[in-house]
Structures are given as C-alpha cells and as structure tokens.
Amino acid sequence: MLIDDVDPPGTIALDDPDLAAAMAVVDELQPSEQRTVILHAVRAALATQRTGEAEHATRFTRDLLATTRLRAIPAYNNALRRERPAQGPGAARRVEDVLGELQESRRDA
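RE: above sequence
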C-alpha cells in the first residue's frame, strides 16, 4: 500500500501487540462499521492534504485509538449492541452516552 519501502523512524512493527489488539477489534466490526472507519480515515487524509493542517490526521488518530480501546471492553460493546437496533448499524454514538449507560447498568446490577 505504501509508495516506497522506507518506513519513517518510529513506525510500529506489523507484529506489535497494540496493533494486533486494535486489528482484532476492527476484525470484529460489522462491514458497515469497517467502512465508516475507512471513510473517516480518507476524510482526514484528504483534509490534511488540502489544508496542510495535521490536526485533521491527529484528531482522527486520537479518535481511532480511543474507539479501538473502548471496543475491546466487552461491557462497552454490549452497551453499543443494546442501542444499535435503534441507531442502525455503524451509527455514530457519543462516547459519553455509552459510558453513562455502562455506569447505569453497573448501578442496576
């Protein structure tokens, strides 16, 4: 996928455990959710290219890592699944809303 074979310093190895954990989460996403991830990646890349502002890529990176880490938590995923029928597959949710639901479900348990 890269144009050249030279990785910049600090590039993460393909067998990095954190990368493997993130990819395990991506592999579990529904196809519509995977498409949403790619859509936002391309959107951030185009915005960065067009504006010259790295903030677009930085924000996407932050959001992507937060999403993969949260989606690795079974209780978080369960809260998303409970809401998914109302929202539709791949619908965006505010992290604060899902975390609030998690806190409520723990109080009720």
